[in-house]
Amino acid sequence: MKIGTFARKFNINISTVRFYINNGLLRPCRVGGQYEFDRECISDMEKILKYKKYYFSLEEIQLLFFMEKASRFQDEIVVEVCTEILKNKRKQLMTERDNLSRFIDEIDREIDNFPSFPAKEIAESGVPFSFIPYLYCPCCQEALRLDSASLSNGSIQKGVLSCECGYAAVISDGIILCEDYAEETPFKAFENVESVIAMKEQFSPTYRRLITRTYVWMYNRIVNQPDHAKYIMAGPFTFNFLLEYIEKLGKENTYIIFDPSLKRISKMKKYLSSWDYTIVYIVGKPKDLPVKNNSVDLYIDDYSTVNSLFTYNTFSTESIAPLLKNAGRVVGIFTTYKNAPKSLQNFVKDHPNFKPEKMTLGGLKYNWSLWNVKFIDEKAIGATTPGELHFPQNEIGETVEVHGYHAEKEIL
Q1: Ranges of the chain whose pLDDT falls below 70
Q2: Which is nearest to 276 in space by CA: 117, 120, 116?
Q3: What b-and-e string marks burial along 238-249, b requiring 16 or more CB atoms within 10 Å of the CB?
Q4: For position 196, what pLDDT does the model report?
Q5: What is the pTM of this model?
Q6: What's the rounded Cα separation, in Å, for the pair 183 and 142?
Q7: What is the rounded (10 degree) CA torsion for 43, 45, 51, 54?
Q8: In sequence order, which residues have a C-beta less than 8 Å from that of residue 289 and are 6 or more positions away?
């Protein structure tokens, strides 16, 4: 039996088989420069797996194997030594079992000692009154007319927004719905893409660590800005940054979260419903946002540009930049694929109009600069490892680089 077949038989890696050979636990013959595994090797591998199941260390397994190979259990003293080894392991496992039982009892007491609270009703949230002066037509930048409004808890639950130029939107269940919105997201690269929390689970631990490090870098750029109430925007296709950092960013801010998918915005609203924060939810494409120009202090590009490129083949900077105030900031996360061309091409299967050549940090920098938004800081956070699958479209052997960036709109 060749090494590959042997490894598959026991559902282990070839490198693991070589490890056991190097440590003297497996002793295959060499035929023509290749290992040949016989019945004794199969028996020894079964014993290794059995002893590992019993929590024996490598040194203990080596000793047991040495005793057996040296005597074939025909020596009374050897049998006594091996018996003692097994008895000691049994005693150790029984002690660990007793400790685990005690720890379980302690955890049960901890749970019983937690205070209980009656369920609280979550206040119905909508478009806050304070945002009415910022409801502007994206086409002609005139203040929008609000009709048939239904008010509750200091916010607008229902209403009709219109402009003389023909632009229209509605407010339903406290969410602004632009005319060209979608029930389901047009971004189709992941399973359960409507759920930002579920999406993160589809990345490898290595990729998730890179995202976490980038988020820390982004947050440190934000906290260094002047400490005053801000209008903070995130979207489209925003990821997990706001969910993880909104408490640190503070409740004095007004948050504008938008996405083309009603289902996704509804989930974001549900996730954030327990926070008593001022949040405006908008469903629509970047070009249709009913937000006044020069009103946003901070735009959080949380995979928004990356996923806009996949979905719309555009950076969306031409729609976001006018909304930024002079000296308004952008902090973001961006991935590059110069070492992952096959992985990048795999996204075309979900989005046939996607142009992979656009997915470059230089392209992002250039498109922001067209609207007088200049990079002031950037950092290559790190790259994925080549030997594992990091996301569904990833090709083994290719690496993706994760970058953080910080930009500012020039004062004209």
Answers
A1: 70-74, 117-123, 189-200, 225-227
A2: 120
A3: bbbbbbebbeeb
A4: 64
A5: 0.72
A6: 28
A7: -110
A8: 138, 178, 258, 282, 319, 323
